[in-house]
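agent> fetching stored inputs for the pyridoxal-5'-phosphate docking request
agent> found them:
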Amino acid sequence: MTAVRPYGDHYDDGLIELSFTLPVPSRRSARKAATMLAEAMGLEAPEVAHCEELTEGFTFFVLYGRCPHSVDFTAIDDAEWEPVPLSEPEIEEFAAEHLTRKVVVVGASVGTDTHTVGIDAILNLKGFDGSHGLEAYGAFETHNLGGQVSNEALVRTVLELEADALLVSQTVTQQELHVGTLRDLVERIEASGRRGEMLLICGGPRITNDLARELGFDVGFSKGTYPHHVASYIVRETAARAASETETTSAAL
Amino acid sequence: MTAVRPYGDHYDDGLIELSFTLPVPSRRSARKAATMLAEAMGLEAPEVAHCEELTEGFTFFVLYGRCPHSVDFTAIDDAEWEPVPLSEPEIEEFAAEHLTRKVVVVGASVGTDTHTVGIDAILNLKGFDGSHGLEAYGAFETHNLGGQVSNEALVRTVLELEADALLVSQTVTQQELHVGTLRDLVERIEASGRRGEMLLICGGPRITNDLARELGFDVGFSKGTYPHHVASYIVRETAARAASETETTSAAL
Amino acid sequence: MASTGSKLDLDAGLVDGCRQAAAAVAEGVAERIAGCTTVSVERMVVRMLGVDGVDRFETPLPNVVVDHVHHQGKLDRGIAFWLGGAMARTGLSAQQLAEGVAAGELDLCNPDGADPEQGIKAASEATAEALAAIHRDRAQRGGWISQLDDAAADRPQRYVLTATGNVYEDVRHAEAVADHGGDTIAVIRSTAQSLLDYVPFGPTEVGHGGTFATQQNFRIMRDALDAWSCENGRYMRLSSFCSGLCMPEIAAIGAIEGLDNMVNDALYGILYRDIHMRRTLIDQSVSRRINGYAGIVINTGEDSYLRTADPVESAPSVVASQLINYNLARSYGVPDEQIAIGNAFEIDMSVENGLLLEWAQAQLTRELFPECPVKFMPPTKHMNGNPFRTHACDTLFNLVTVATNQDMQTIGVPTEGVFTPHIHDRVLGLESVEYAAVTARDLGDEIEFKRGGIIQSRADEVLRGAAELLEEIVADGLFAALERGRFGNIERREDQGRGIEGIVECGEDYFNPVIAQMEVGAPGVESGMYV
Amino acid sequence: MASTGSKLDLDAGLVDGCRQAAAAVAEGVAERIAGCTTVSVERMVVRMLGVDGVDRFETPLPNVVVDHVHHQGKLDRGIAFWLGGAMARTGLSAQQLAEGVAAGELDLCNPDGADPEQGIKAASEATAEALAAIHRDRAQRGGWISQLDDAAADRPQRYVLTATGNVYEDVRHAEAVADHGGDTIAVIRSTAQSLLDYVPFGPTEVGHGGTFATQQNFRIMRDALDAWSCENGRYMRLSSFCSGLCMPEIAAIGAIEGLDNMVNDALYGILYRDIHMRRTLIDQSVSRRINGYAGIVINTGEDSYLRTADPVESAPSVVASQLINYNLARSYGVPDEQIAIGNAFEIDMSVENGLLLEWAQAQLTRELFPECPVKFMPPTKHMNGNPFRTHACDTLFNLVTVATNQDMQTIGVPTEGVFTPHIHDRVLGLESVEYAAVTARDLGDEIEFKRGGIIQSRADEVLRGAAELLEEIVADGLFAALERGRFGNIERREDQGRGIEGIVECGEDYFNPVIAQMEVGAPGVESGMYV
Ligand code: B12
Ligand code: B12
Ligand SMILES: Cc1ncc(COP(=O)(O)O)c(C=O)c1O
Ligand SMILES: Cc1ncc(COP(=O)(O)O)c(C=O)c1O
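agent> prediction call returned; pasting tokens
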């Protein structure tokens, strides 16, 4: 597992498929260009299996090759990647034990994004695929503002409600729309001087944890997220922060 | 055209799709591994769109990313890649003008390969997709030995018939079967001392010109080949060789 | 259109009942919106009078002009009244006047020594000229089209979205689509557009999730498609979306720029864009009037319900809505041949016999609207990141499309569950459409459904559900149904929603020459001219 | 099996005529091969008597033993005669004797003071024991199977190839297949195997285009599948190929190793492997006898014809061949429930209404063989390097499979036109099979074909073509038909082909206890036990 390579039909054969369009005319030289591109990625024995003109000057390729690169799977920290989520009752129990009051959660699909099915899945009573949303938990006080909510309106509400966790959803990502919207939101929260008082969480089918952190969020959730994943994170993190605060405070005394 | 990159929906966006299986368990860390592999190929912003367990310890991925590599399309020699083939009548005319006798052509699908549809398409009267095979040409004397022909038997026939061109087909390529078979064939021909007297041509859906040359053939043909492509090559090359021989001979005088 | 006889053995009495109920619902709506106009309706009039362009703050001049009057509380007479008056008074064109207003040099509502009759005459004449120009252009286009091939003449029309966010890239994609047998290009709009109470100006190079519907973008794509059509001898249609806060204006721009088709749903803005109910219903009435007049085919949007509600359970609401949408369109002068009824293939592949249910519903739509084109949309809701799964589902969708003799189909793309498609995704989608269209060409005529089998029973069940829902709506009104979340599981309040501030009560002497003249009908405009 | 009533409105007289003609053809074949054995038949006997392993040149001991007698020109009495004699004489086991022969220490044909009766008795007893062991093992397996789930009980059985060339990799692929709803694993053989006049020995790690069928490979895969079945409570079937120069031996190994299914076509070796006609026809008769005895389902291979001939034109030859193949199998004791009739979906997507023709043919196969399992194979001939195209075609194939109530289907994979599939290709293929099986579950029962429509007419036309061809074959014989290229467009000469040197005329006192005892039938073996 220290040198994991793609597998087609033999261990370590490195077989992988690529498909892409090149803005070149559909001639034999186009195949060569596709092959060279694969070689530039380090692939060995690249082979064009399919090649087709889309319109003048654009050619589509399906290509197979062998990838000699490998990944050290043992080096990927499973603990960080794989926090085992608590179940619904465990979360309630944990909250009862570690938290002194309900966590105030405010959620929305922001900017011009009208996709609300994702945030509804996390927040609404009905939840997702048989799992209740945060509304169903005793541990949370939940406010779902819906879709197309402007950052301005959201920040206003968050400050009014003294939210402990802000949950935003973004689905439309074309031309990096979400990046601008999310960055703007973080700036507004920071400008309010209250960033430290809340968890900033974002989610959506094409949001990754890496991206979320890069943008200044505490965490990001993607496809396959269930409400209890998010709830686990919130109660654990809130408890941890409270604990470290108490520590800091007592240390300061 | 000096720096051609993949095109998804904007010039130079570099968007490409990869799919492969990694021999790792289907956990979140597997996604990370897939992303890292894409990064090792130099891709930017790799994103796992789909990930699914095949069986314990094997995970399939579909991943998109941006390829920053580019290809200099102007540097790919179109002339070499794009020899304009002659049509059937042009070939006959060319042969009448430049060749002194019929070119003796021997073809077969060699080794254990029973796939004959490809070689039949090139050689038989009926041909392929409306184009006649070499049998239909006045310029050639054609012998199609069929499938599953051993290299030994083939070489024997070739020497007997004093063939000018040897056409072999290979379809089954798994575990590089064709490479061994073709290499063995070239060795036998060379051992016969008659390599110089004939054109060595191979073809098949996964044969590339590059591979053919590497193995010691004069040329290789792949999918999308029509009989007149091959016929053009044979008459042109035969004429060119004859011409340069005459030259060499006269120079020697 | 519909070449198939009935295969579903529908209860004719039930069908009639549904039709009558839907007509009653449409009448109820007409009452609720009577006597009102909106800023967008008025801006449409300004555009028809020839105003275009933006001021130095990039505000479109139609907005400048209408806001100018609205802020003075005088829109109740209709913008044409004021603009016509000023035209008559000054001899300036509407465009010159608009520029004057933008420069702050002119007050349209200060009719220093003006004669209202003269103004009304001026505006009416200008309108008549504008409509005549539209009519002339379209007739000319119609003539040209009739000389070209129409691949969709004997198979479902292939409707393909482009959504790059850059109109010039959209053109590239459109060319690939045309080269691979697409019939219609619909440029998806940038995500914010429905919420904008103005129509953006100029060509778009950075949109998100799509490219703005602007007059310039329409023209760029129209020119590109016309060029392709000339070169290839086959006509490529152009489509866009009327939906949002600017339905009437966009309809007008579409008429002017020679569009063939526009998505125009009566309820989409309310349900999916949180637009105020009355605002949208007024706007749709006018925009459909324009679409109808200009021979543009409209498409209803029931497909969306199947994406936010459970597609098996919500089937009756789709049928009820189709009938309501249809009747609303008819009330504003859209003929049957121009009303394409929407439906979608959204049942998850894991539902046992889901294909049979889809087949039943597609056939039901086909049979309920025998004179209308029916438009079928591909699976999207349950499409995930696995492009092979999506492609397989699309292939089954394509088969049902052919087998139920749909007139139009949006094509599915393998990456539907991931992003707005890359150039080859559309080509792959079109290829699968072609396989089904050829290999299963006459499947619809070839098969019959078992009497009382799953398909016939499902159609009956859905129709009964629709009848019940329609009865409820006849009783309580469409607004109540929307409040109860009857469509797409989305609940909207009658007193909330965007754009309410743009509704204006018409005065007794409200004047709108565009609607007035369109109601009369154009000289010799044949309906369904571009169908 | 077949739950559907007739949908094709076939001409019953024509059907009967075809059946009778095919039976006559099979009788004609029986005459042509009567009184002969082959080296492979004899090696099968040696294996049944317990001989396995290889000599120091890696030659399998069954070959060593048979060649030893054959070189002395004494195979006409049957190898069992000589081996039994030596057993009786020496008290050694067949295995010990074989090793002795290999070591050059023993001459089986030198029956120094032997009693022929004793030899025959010894061989007969050993055979009876061997057959009893097979019977016991299979009965035990049958009992175990009956406690497990069978996913294929109410949907087409999913038959999946593995072809890595390495048996241990094949096991990995098989596990992925099992985890994704596959029912049967068939390990494709390395390309050379059909041409080898011996069965390779030991586990294979480097095969080409597949993995050799060896006893060890069978066992490795059987164990892996049994382990999976135990763990998951669902039975996984195992299949392989009898075809080639060793049909009888491989059938024997399959019986011993508990296979459930074997591809066993009467003509494939002749047509596609250039094997001598009589050699293959003798071998198939014996191998089918063994398959039938052991309760193994056999699959005929008409799918191949559609790959080398035009699939639209060659349809009648497929039906004719199915009937001949069926009758040949019946003549050697294979019951209906164990004869899976092959057919494939090979019409190119560009043929107008091709799907309707496929549907007709699949339904025709279904209706002509009401008591047999029918096996449908996916498109391969026209599959190219575009995996999306292949996946779309496979999806349509999967749909027709469900709609015509096929009992078994091979699954298609997106990379069919490129290489033997990668591990995920099989899973993607299985997923598409599952979509169709679920979403279109009852489609077959739900639809009826228009009377005299394209589908019914096609079925009739194909059946008529088959009847004509069968008449010709009754008149001129199967050998002549093969010379004329009637199947798969491939012409073979009666006097040519591989393996002719392995045919042996039986003497009058030819002795083969395996065939003799199998003809009687096993104690209480129920046919179709593992179907
Ligand atoms: C339903 C839908 C719609 C509905 C939305 C209705 C509604 N009220 O939500 C309607 C029909 C209105 C619609 C319209 C449009 N849509 Co849309 N739509 C979809 C569709 C079919 C399904 C999305 C969905 O509901 N998924 C189900 C939910 C449960 O999944 P999810 O959102 O990923 O949520 C999960 C996780 O991501 C996570 N999560 C999500 N948010 C959050 C937030 C937090 C805090 C956390 C912790 C977790 C979390 O948890 C959830 C549960 O696991 C997708 C296609 C597809 N199959 O994905 C296209 C899709 C999303 N739409 C798309 C587009 C472009 C549009 C339009 C912009 C097109 C146009 N211009 O006309 C419009 C306008 C919308 C706008 N401005 O936002 C594109 C987006 C492309 C991109 N990546 O940029 C898609 C992918 C289709 C496509 N291939 O083109 N759409
Ligand atoms: C038909 C077919 C068969 C038939 C062959 C009958 C026959 N007499 O040819 C039968 C059913 C017998 C068969 C059997 C097997 N097949 Co096969 N078969 C195919 C199939 C469906 C089509 C191949 C074909 O005819 N193509 C059409 C011709 C016209 O195309 P072509 O060969 O590429 O030829 C063109 C060019 O390549 C070029 N060309 C080809 N040869 C030459 C030679 C010269 C000199 C030149 C100039 C040009 C040239 O010109 C031609 C015209 O453009 C393919 C799947 C597919 N769709 O590709 C699988 C396929 C080729 N088979 C395959 C396999 C594995 C087998 C088996 C080994 C499986 C098994 N173990 O049971 C067996 C045994 C065969 C063997 N030992 O060789 C694999 C090969 C995988 C690989 N790359 O290694 C394929 C790809 C299927 C798959 N995905 O698994 N097969
Ligand atoms: C009826 C209707 N109008 C318009 C749109 C386009 O959405 P937008 O409001 O973003 O332009 C859609 C997309 O689903 C639709 O269904
Ligand atoms: C009937 C039959 N037997 C066997 C095979 C396998 O081929 P091989 O001869 O290479 O084992 C096939 C493959 O197409 C077949 O159709």
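agent> quick read of the result: Strands of chain B lie at 15-22, 44-55, 58-66, 103-109, 140-144, 165-169, 199-203, 219-221.
agent> awaiting further instructions
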